Amino acid sequence: MSPRRSVADTLETRQRILDRSLAIASAEGLEGLTIGRLAGELGMSKAGLLGHFGTKEALQLAVVDQAAEVFQREVPGRVKQAPSGLPRLKAVCEAWVSYLEREVLPGGCFFTAATTEFDGRSGRVRDALAGMNALWRRDLRIHIRRAVSFGELPEDTDVDQLIYEVVGIMLALNHFLQLEHDSAAPARARRALDRLFTAR
User: Fold this and answer.
1) How far apart are the C-alpha atoms of 50 and 58, rounded to whole Å?
2) From CA 74, how far away is CA 89, in angstroms rounded?
3) What is the per-residue pLDDT across 101-117, written as a single tens digit (0 to 9) for each?
4) Cα separation values, 93 from 10, 74, 103, 177, Å
5) What is the pTM of this model?
6) How far apart are CA 6 and CA 184, in angstroms?
7) Confidence of residue 4 (pLDDT cuts 50, 70, 90)
């Protein structure tokens, strides 16, 4: 086997591990990832699976990165053509609703599940999750401030409050979809967002 093929096979195997790990973690949490379970489901040895990551924590961190890539592709990545300001903010929120509505991940929002699991802990996984959430809030803040600067939202808009309310709507949407299996939840979220942006 050529070195190039060997590298490609290694990367393909690593991606298979991450894809399966993310699916499990979205539904059962990062602690639901056990080396034995993954090895069995993927037809690998434990040693072979660990060889790709080294430790369970390293695997968890890689899954956080993978989840961020999926979210980036499915939410901000889908609205790059939307005009800056309020149109982009609304498009991002619609893509976020759609991401949850389409059940891109079997357990709903990975970051909601993982943050709840790790918010009371310390360590690298908790810090990685906090960092990803901070980056997303930063992006929302940019969209809101541009909307204010363009005159699309009032000058006295409380940016942090608006972010809090948008995130709250999305957390509620994830809850009603996952726990209640409420098919009306996406429509309710859209109405709540519409009121949020038009009431200002």
Assistant:
1) 10
2) 15
3) 999 999 999 999 899 99
4) 37, 11, 16, 16
5) 0.90
6) 48
7) low
